[in-house]
Amino acid sequence: MSIGSFSRVLSCVIASAAPLLALAPAAVAAPDSPYSCSGLYLTSDGSAEVESCIYAENGVPRAFGGLNIKNDSINNKNCTMVVTVVDKDAYAGGGTNERVATSGPFPCLNGRYPSPPLTVDAVFAKPGHRYVSFTAVTKNGQTFSPIYSPELVLQ
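Above: the chain sequence. Below: its structure as tokens.
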């Protein structure tokens, strides 16, 4: 592919993706709520970078995932992303499920989602428990290894 062809393809990709990005606001933590993120990890096929973030706000864990699409093999029609929060101490405290919140699947777009961030219901927020979030991306029916956030100990 020549440089001229590449630049025409690139400008078409950017122009066609712009409306999608304008429709989906990125998730943002409140300014007084610092959050911890995994960092970006490349999917096994190299089509995207994925991250998972968690923080505490108003006494409950909140989480979001991030996606940085790297090539046109991944789009909002063949890809979904799910963010889940896990209480690593749920079973020790008599709980029956360590997964305390999930976003459900939503189409893959560049940015951080869901917006607003996924919030754990107060009934599942236990001081002293360790929480992590994970972001799972599924492309064409194949789920890549989930990316986990750093651990959050709820105060």
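The CA atoms of residues 38 and 149 lie 5 Å apart.
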